[in-house]
Amino acid sequence: MDLTGAQVLAHRAAAQGLHGDDPDAVLPLGVVDSPPKTGAAALGVRGRREDTVDARDLVRVLSLRGTPHLHRRDDLPALRRQLRPRTPRQLAAWCGAHPTPDLAHLDLVVDVLHREFPGDTATKGELSAAISPLLPEAVTPHCPTCDAHHVIENVFRLATLLAGVELEHLGAKLVFRRPTGKPDVEDPGEPALLRDYARLVGPFAKADAEKWLGAGPQDTWPDLRPVRVDGKPLLAHEDVPPAPDPPAGLLLFPRDPYLLGPRRLVADPDVAKRVWRPVGSPGALVVHGRVVGAWRHEFRGRTVTFQLTGWSKVKGAARRAIKDQAEVLAGVWGGDVLGPDVVEW
Predict the structure, then answer these.
(1) Is 193 a member of any domain?
(2) Which of 153, 177, 201 lies at the terminal end of a domain, its last residue?
(3) Which of 109, 219, 234, 267 has its CA 20 to 30 A from that of 326?
(4) Listing from the earlier edge strand, what are the strands of the sheet with 2-3?
(5) Domain that includes residue 102, residue range
(6) Closest by alpha carbon to 209, among 188, 195, 226?
(7) What is the per-residue pLDDT across 219-270, written as a single tens digit (0 to 9) for each?
């Protein structure tokens, strides 16, 4: 199958609900929620207008790559099964520069988290301090920065998910809630996360999918077949059906699910360098499906101001759509008291 990048992006926008007809379509992938309310913003631009923070069907957890995400509560058992490392190589992906402990040590961390959770809620520091003295040095090496022994950072983050520990939705610090129920230790089953990635992102490279998953080399993949996009080889799980053009204008955070997959499909290299940075990435200004610039926002009293690169070059339907997006994001962050003011940056 031969496709153009424009066809892939049109399919992706439609599959992920960016036309506003299915705001929850993207939730099988989860949405990054760091800093807090960026997940609500991702769902808001897709048309979810209820108070996402208080939505009973959503939960905030440390999941993919150990990062705070919003997921549907009903999806958590499958998420835990598929992110649980099954091989030393997969566990090594969570250990950084530290030696990889035995898989049994991860199960021990999960068990101790579940049994020794202090109080109804606990900060990350309080929870780590409560469990680290009860664990072997294989998972609590000396940390030069803290000058203390504590659980390997991303192993701790993964273990909270596996133990059924959820996060409070708001606040600058990570605050964990006491887990309920028993940890899930079933086999992973079908690679549903990767299948959803293929379905919602479209043609992809395995390296892109594994980077998103952050769970080490994958032994099981959904059925894939080769395709060519703009003449370059990628993989697809199913046909890419025709779809309407992407929305004329979007304000997305840099880790929005729309921006997954091969970066060259959504941005030219010079634009990508300005948007995706090692630290402090701005938002992505998307016009007719592609990232054309960056944006940031700031609060001045009770007003949120959006600062965009190249705003003077955004015309017609795209300009109107960006203003609508600013209204939506202002509502997500503060309700009717905030008035968006889109300015040149």
Answers:
(1) no
(2) 177
(3) 267
(4) 2-3, 225-229, 232-236
(5) 2-177
(6) 195
(7) 889 999 999 999 999 999 999 999 999 999 999 998 999 999 999 999 999 9
